[in-house]
Amino acid sequence: MSPINMPGGLEGSVWTLVAHSGPMAKGVLFLLLVFSVVSWAIILQKAVRLRRLSKASRRFWFDFSASDLSGAVRRSASRASYGATPLRALLVAGVREGHGSTAKDDYLLDDVETVGGLPPARREAIERAVSRSAMVELSALEKHLSFLATTANVSPFVGLFGTVWGVMDAFLAMGLHGSTNLATVGPGIAEALIATVAGLAAAIPAVIGYNHFLGEIRAVSVDLDRFRSLLADRLTKE
User: Fold this and answer.
1) How far apart are CA 156 and CA 153, in angstroms?
2) Which run of H or of E encompasses 11?
3) pLDDT at residue 5 above 80?
4) Where residue 200 falls among pLDDT bands split at 50, 70, 90?
5) Any residues with CB less than 8 A from the CB of 30 and at least 6 apart, and which?
6) Residues of the chain with pLDDT > 90: what percent?
7) DSSP string of 87-145?
8) In contact, 134 and 228? CB cutoff 8 Å
9) 142, 224 in Cβ contact below 8 A?
10) FRET partner for 101 with CA separation of 20 to 30 A, picked from 23, 44, 114, 138?
């Protein structure tokens, strides 16, 4: 980074300029830093979770399609069998509703001897129970996405506020010194540009992360909806 002339003959990098900026500029940059750090934490957490979910869901679909329903239910009684997939929660909800179970302990599913062959009249109740479970699972997946959306929408405006403030500082310095040379207006203009860059740096990853995760969660939603109908069919026919 090329050196920047600072007031009082100081020279340094952008970090030096930030260190010598006013309280308002520092406040803007600190707020954008918080937005950025939290956004990156959410992005990394969501990326890891959705990747594990995808792998677990593929394994679940394979086992569910390749075996009878009783076998799938017994394997699903152990959370370790299918990891992070929400499909397991839907299966548990459907079987519980079908057999009128209110037990909270998933491992009690091991005691279910007859899984299929339920009356068709139970289908609607099963689908409602599975739909409720799907809503809970999707809500958990969507958690914190609103923060990414907020960061994407707000950060550019926070950066713009810092930009306007820096330009105002530059004009005030120009009026106080009666000069338009770079040493007078440079620090204010530099603060303004740094605020703009910081706003964009916080917003761009948040926009990309939000859109990417929203697309993946929509795909999961389609998967859950497909599984809901399939599970109801198998519970009332097998």
Assistant:
1) 7
2) strand 11-12
3) no
4) very high
5) none
6) 29
7) HHHHHHHHHHHHHT-----GGGGGG----S---GGGHHHHHHHHHHHHHHHHHHHHTTH
8) yes
9) no
10) 138
- DSSP 8-state assignment for residue 179: -
3-state SS of 135-176? HHHHHHHHCCHHHHHHHHHHHHHHHHHHHHHHHHHHHHHHHH
Sequence-distant (≥ 6) Cβ neighbours of residue 68 within 8 angstroms:
116, 238
Q: Give the chain's domain count.
A: 1
> CB neighbours of 43 closer than 8 A, spacing ≥ 6?
148, 205, 206, 209
Identify residue 196 by its one-letter amino acid code.
Answer: T
Tokens of 79: 């959370």
* Token digits of residue 142: 């969507």
The number of helices, as runs of H, and strands, as runs of E, in the chain is 8, 2
The pLDDT tens digits of the residues spanning 121-166 come to: 667 777 888 888 889 999 999 999 999 999 999 999 999 988 888 8
Query: In 10 A of CB 107, how many CB atoms?
Result: 10
- Say how many C-beta atoms besides its own lie within 10 A of residue 30's C-beta: 11
User: Among 114, 113, 133, 131, which Cα is nearest to 123's?
Assistant: 131
